[in-house]
Every structure is written in structure tokens, then in C-alpha cells.
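Same chain as my last thread, 531 residues:
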Amino acid sequence: MLTLSRWKIIAVTLSVIFGILFSLPNVLPQKTLDAMPGWLPRQKLNLGLDLQGGSYLLYEVDTEALHRERLSNLVEDVRTQLRNEQIPFGELAQQGDVVSVRIGDASRYNDAMNVLRKNIGAPLAGVIGGKDVAVSGKGDQRIQLEYVPEAIRADAAKAVDQSIETVRRRIDSLGTKEPSINRQGANRIMIQAAGESDPERLRAVIGKTAKLTFQMVDETVTPEDIQAGRIPPGSEVLKGDRYAAVYVVKKRAVVSGDELTNATQTFDQNGSPAVGFAFNGAGARKFGDVTTRNRGKRFAIVLDKQVISAPQINDPITGGSGIITGSFTAQSANELALLLRSGALPAPLNIEDQRTVTAELGADAVKAGSISLAIGAASMFVFVILAYGLFGAFAAIALVVNVLLIIGIMSFSQATLTFPGIAGLILTLAVAVDANVLIYERMRDEANAGRTPMAAADHGYKLALTSILDANITSLISGLIMFSFGSGPVKGFAWTLVIGVFTSLFTAIFITQVLIGWWFKATKPKKLPIA
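reply #2:
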């Protein structure tokens, strides 16, 4: 194993060059980096929230609000289905978690049951032939509809998953680097944005549901009707824009923001900031049909239950695109476009906790971590050199290259280094030293057994390799499990540990092999310095 083969020398040389080039930007001042040639790497370590400061937010997904919205939509679905079949009904209302309706004609009761069972609800995952809505008769010509418990739980879990992805897209659009976004518990989302010192800026983008709908204005309702509370079933009163305090609109949306393909900040014909939008094929067809059938009427553009614009349809809009005008500034129009591009949240997010980690605290953490790393490394260097002399110095050199490789790989990949990650780095150095201790002790045993120095060194590497692989494979498995199932500090520790396993194996085996091989070739010793 001590043969100085060309591929080993090339691999060691390239690894040292890589480690130096990609680690160097972390210790050079910014002016020096700017003056360097463009082909040289300039990536620095991406420090986590605990090292460089930033914002911490904890949100709770309001799954109850989602369920209430689903029940409200269920009421409208029942109304639509019974009207389409011309079945008389009354007393349609939501009572708690149940939607109840009374069929006016007893002879059509069975027809109503069949229509609702056939057309209401979606297939229930994992249940053959099952639906997420249960339809049952309750006597007195009443029909009761409710979501089954499995569907409620599935909706809640899906809402949290969708919220995490939507939040991630929104934060990425802000340019925040490497945000940590993780589920906490059943319905909470923890957000750590390193380097983002203004949590209010994050909240302004993250917390908005941004549910965009296009709904027809109900122009049969007069201001007197609104004042008296005479709102027809199937319509609702929403807060208005600068032209009207409130609007009465149809509850059923004709097109939703889910069918948008793009949204950008633009300007209207008067040069005022606006938001341009474009629908996908299905949305464009729906929008074209609605504007064709309702020429001369008004439709409301509704964002989070507030009308932001209610233009009149002068001509059919068949191109699948348009603009949203309102009291926008360039910044608010750009933020709305960002929200629409990233998609609506399936449920509101309620802020549970908000904290700001200052840069000073992060600098203290970096200083403490650097000191602990230096003390740990120095202690290991002293131990290994005192214990094994020249070979211990070779092991110390391998440790230095190991650190350079870990920092270089993390800088190159822009993986986030956290304070627990520094602990993982220190543990990696200890494991790397352990590998050299196993090798050197096996060499000593072989030398004491009467083997020549070269044979003792060669057998030391061969016989210790199995134990080294066993120890590192178990560390690798542990690190992968922590990385897969952990979050926050655990994930940062695991990531550094996983990288360290590979670099430790390489440096402890190959770099010391090359150094010891050169030493044998140059000195041709009669005795091992560790015997």
C-alpha cells in the first residue's frame, strides 16, 4: 500500500490545491478578493443564523381556517348542484362542521341524494371508492354533508407541506441566501433567514395569503340592501378599493390565481404602477368565456378577501393576459407580483414567535467556535506528535489538509455552516486522528513482531483499514440519519460530519501514505521511528 503510484500523488496534490484555493477567500479581505483574477474562486463560507445573525420566525398554519373555507365552498357546491338539477331546496346552511340542506319536494329527495353523492367531494386517498365528503339522510327531507376525519387530517398535512414550499419560493425571490425552512410539530413552520436583519420585511411577504380570485360583481344589490343586510345567498360583501367602500360579489370565483403562469410589475396607460398577469390555457379559456358572456358588467379582482380593482368588461378578453390596476406604488406592485408568482398560501399563517439575532452575537459565536477549533486542533497536534514523532507530524499535516478540504468543499457548495457544524468539524478531526492512531499502533505491533520497517508499515495500513472503514461507515450512517430526519442545529452538525467522514478517510490514509512513502524512499530507514 506504500507504493508511490502516480495516481495517488496526483490525487493528493489536487486535493491540497483545491483545499487551499477554495478556503483562501475566507481569510482574505474583500478588496483583495475583488482584485483577484476572475477565474479564481471567491465563494466564502455561508454562515448560518447563529454565526452571522439574521431573522427567526415561527408560524402556525391556520388549518381551522382552511377547514372553514372548505365548508363554505361545500355550501356553494351543494347550491350549484341542486340548482342545475332543478331540485327545490331550502335551509341550506353550515352548522359547525356540517352542511345541512332541506329538500322542498319529497318526491325529489332520492334524486337529490344521488346527485350530491355522485358530484360532491373528491376521491379519498387510500380508500377504494371512498370520498372525502360523507352524504347522509337525516329525516324530515334533510340531507347532511361533512368531511370525513381522514380527509380533514390529510388536508391539514397537505396545507403545511404546501405552505413550506410557498414560503420557500417567496423567500428565494427576495434573494435571501440558504434560508432554513422546516416543519416543527404538526402545523408549525420555523424559518431562519441568515443575514436578513429585518424580520418585518420577511413577514410582509411571508404572512400574506395572496389568494387571488376573479369574481363577478352582484349588481342587483343596491346600497340600501347592503345597509339593511339584504345580501342574496351565493353573494358576499367584501372590503372595496378607492372607488367604493364595499362591493357585493358572487362567492363563486370564475377564475382563481392558481391558474396564473406569470405576474410582473408593469405600468398602466397612465404610467401608474400596475401588475401584469398571464393565465395558463385553462385559465385563459375560462377568462375568455366569462368576459364574453358578461360584456358590460363588472368583475372584481379580489386579493385575500379585499377587492383591489373592479373594472367593467368592455370587450371579451381572450388573450389570457391583462393588468391589475389600483393604488399601487412601484414597490407594492412588485411585492404583489412576487406573491402571485410564488402562489397563494393554502391557509393563513399566524405568527407565533419572532426574533432577531444581531451580527454582534453572530460574531461572538464565530470567535468562540474558532477558539474552540484552534484549541482542539492544537491539542491533537501536540498529542499525535509526542506519541508518534515524525509520523505524528505527518498525521498533523493530514489534519491540516482535512480542515482545508472541509472548508473548501463547504465554500464551493455554499453549504451553511452553523455553530453545531463547528462542533461536527472538531469531532471530525478527532475521528481522523483516531484513524492514524489505529494505523500507527498496528505498525508498531508488526515491527515488534520482527517485520522489516517497510513490511511493518505496509501491513499496518492493510490490517487497520477494516477497522477504520467500520468506524467511518457507522459515523456516515449516523450523520445521514441525522441529516434526513433532523432540523436546524442537528442538520448543520450532521452535514459537517458527513463531509468530514469522506475527507478524513482520504487524508488519514492517502496523504499519510504518500508522506511516509516519500520518507522511506528518501531515507531507507532500518527502524520505524514509532517502534
